[in-house]
Specification:
The protein has helices at about 5-25, 30-35, 40-45, 65-80, 80-100, 105-115, 230-265, 280-305, 315-340, 350-360, 365-379, and strands at about 120-125, 140-145, 145-160, 165-170, 180-185, 195-200, 210-220, 270, 275. By secondary structure, it is α+β, with helices and mostly antiparallel strands. The structure holds acetoacetyl-coenzyme A. The site of acetoacetyl-coenzyme A has 23 residues, from α5, α7 and α11.
């Protein structure tokens, strides 16, 4: 792997940093408190090309590589992990999934608008009784000839209310197990589709997490992604890439916490000198920075493998497993560096600590990442 970032990479990084500082930082604490979705900010992210970064320009995408995506995700997540999860799901799970496996018609109809952020998308795999055990789908998509009849409930769906396009994973033929599962593109306006309750979450509080209900929703056959029975493999494939996005989000949460801590430690005085002059604090900062650097390298390595068309399931699972632990460790230390100020909501680090936790849970818990890694090792 080449460790040197190109001028293009640096430009993307700088653009994301500038956007995060100018457009996301103002009001981020209030949005978190009020659980207010950053609708206007997401629209601007679309205009700047952050919502379909890796999509081919012929479908209105940015045509960038995955490394650029990692760099942008890190910068956005330093400030607002609620905005970055919306960005990650749209880029990795929805846009990439349709571009990689969709038909030309699906790309023209949906991807061209998803890639610009004109509309956003959601990925609907989890259910009340199918989180980690993703093959146990209770949502059904019964084959009715020219269409599927969709029934069931999905849980914890990111972008659940503001999306126009939902990729729904459902069981068509239970006898075939995971080979009977399909991935269907469902439009928001479909009759029988209802957006359910919004979750009141510990962190990423201004992201939209909803349950969804489907009652006899008619989905035309042309909205199935891939061959009949490909839905589970589709979900696993997009999640391999999604985990690079969430690993980068965790990396950003950690590096944001370090930046806030460095700033605070240089301003705050105790025992007659700045905090940063105390060795106890210096050691904390050194440990935080070292963990972050290691997480960054894992994120970039998995992105590099993906860009070169090499297998990356193991590395993306490693990146997510490691970076999410780093996010927890570094944000906890950041609160400690801030002392009493770290525990109150006027300072960013308590929010970052709450936001960090979800990176160990969604897109596969840390325990699931260990299953993915160990299975790859045994192979
Ligand atoms: N990449 C590619 N293929 C994979 C794969 C991967 N990572 N994991 C499994 N598969 C394939 C297997 O090879 C197998 O195919 P073959 O029979 O052809 O070999 C098939 O899928 C079935 O796999 P398993 O037999 O291993 O299935 P399993 O029931 O033992 O479970 C699992 C596999 C890895 C545990 C899987 O269920 C899993 O990943 N669970 C976690 C689900 C998850 O990440 N959910 C996140 C929700 S989405 C979200 O959070 C988005 C958001 O809003 C932020």
């Amino acid at each position: 792997m080449n460790f040197t970032l190109t001028e293009e990479h640096l430009a993307v990084q700088e653009a994301a940093r500038e956007f995060a500082q100018k457009e996301l930082l103002p009001g981020v604490i209030e949005r978190d408190e009020e659980q207010r979705f950053p609708k206007e900010q997401i629209r601007k992210m679309g205009e700047l090309g952050f919502m379909g970064m890796m999509v081919d320009p012929k479908y209105n995408g940015g045509g960038m590589d995955t490394k650029s995506y990692v760099l942008a995700m890190e910068e956005i997540s330093k400030i607002d992990a609620s905005a970055s999860v919306c960005m990650s799901v749209n880029n990795s799970l929805v846009c990439w999934g349709i571009e990689q496996y969709g038909t030309e018609e699906q790309k023209e109809k949906y991807l061209t608008r998803l890639a610009t952020g004109e509309i956003i998308g959601a990925f609907c795999l989890s259910e009340p009784e199918a989180g980690s055990d993703a093959t146990s789908q209770k949502t059904t998509a019964i084959d009715k000839g020219d269409h599927y009849l969709l029934n069931g409930t999905k849980n914890w769906i990111t972008n659940g209310n503001s999306s126009s396009v939902y990729i729904v994973i459902a069981q068509t033929d239970p006898e075939k197990g995971y080979k009977g599962i399909n991935a269907l593109i469902v439009e928001r306006e479909s009759e029988g589709f209802v957006v359910g309750k919004k979750e009141n979450k510990m962190g990423i509080r201004s992201s939209e997490t909803h349950s969804l209900m489907f009652t006899d929703v008619k989905i035309p056959k042309e909205n199935r992604i891939g061959e009949d029975g490909f839905g589970f493999k589709f979900a696993m494939s997009v999640l391999n890439g999604g985990r690079i996005g969430i690993a980068s989000q965790a990396l950003g949460i950690a590096s944001g916490a370090l930046e806030f801590s460095l700033q605070y430690a240089q301003e705050r005085k105790a025992f007659g000198k700045e905090l940063v002059q105390h060795q106890g604090i210096q050691f904390k900062l050194a440990d935080m920075a070292t963990q972050i650097e290691a997480a960054r390298l894992l994120c970039l390595q998995s992105a590099d493998l993906k860009d070169r068309g090499l297998p990356y399931a193991k590395q993306s699972a490693m990146a997510k497993l490691f970076a999410s632990q780093v996010a927890m460790d570094v944000t906890t230390e950041a609160v400690q560096v801030h002392g009493g100020y770290g525990y109150v909501k006027e300072y960013h680090v308590e929010r970052l600590m709450r936001d960090a936790k979800i990176t160990q849970i969604y897109e596969g818990t840390s325990e699931i990442q260990k299953i993915v890694i160990s299975r790859e090792l045994i192979k």
